[in-house]
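Hey, does this match?
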Amino acid sequence: MRQAEFALVSGAQAQEQLMDVLTNNLANVNTPGFKRDRVTFRTYLPHREWLHKTPSDQPGFRMTPWGEFPTPWGMAGKDVPHAGVDGIHVGYAQGSFRSTGNPLDVAIKGEGFFRILTPRGEVLSRNGRFTLDRGGRLVTHEGYGVLGEDGKNIRLPESVPGGVRVKADGTVLKGNRVMGRLAVVVPENGTRHLAKVGDGLFMADGKTAPVADPDVLAGGFESSNVNGTFEMVRMIEAMRSFETHLKALQTLNELTRRTVNDISVIA
């Protein structure tokens, strides 16, 4: 019974974690530049020789953007089959371009991220919905500074006449005067080492390199790459699977109760 109970509990827990991730995806279906998360699972089957070794992530807790998730590997012993979330991965597929007509709204076509300066340090973002603060700095809607290729915050002071334009290479002009060039970069060690830090921002664990030939689209922004219909279907599947695990666990508990009662009657 112990093996069956743990297998059911670990499976239900994995579906609960999946629902948390899907809920977060759905909540950000209209967030500019948001990148959906996907969940992968791992099954521990002791009768399979190649799975006899306990994975390197020992039983404990794994920090995620949704809180602390238990890592179940080996908790119940090497003789007990169980399952759980193996990892939460970001899908960097490009979202569709949404036109706004706002010259400060920009999107990156293809690879690359904008460099954003926050109180926590420099981060990366695909959200190109920018605005100006009172000092004429180009900032995100959260008030974080947008950096140029020179590493400085781009400024568009009112004293410079003319309208704002952003060229395809990221050059920002006000009137006929160049005010800077948007930094479009990629992590040198790849996107798989990026970590989400909220507000559509990513923290790189290494250096970044400029994109050789960036393609910046002005007058609109990149929408979320979340497919609401797909995520909702996955949510329904996860809920049904979770309920199935719980019903099986209730049935198992009822069988245990009956077994104990029958033994006591016979005795």
Summary: The mean pLDDT is 84. The first strand starts at residue 37 and ends at 44.
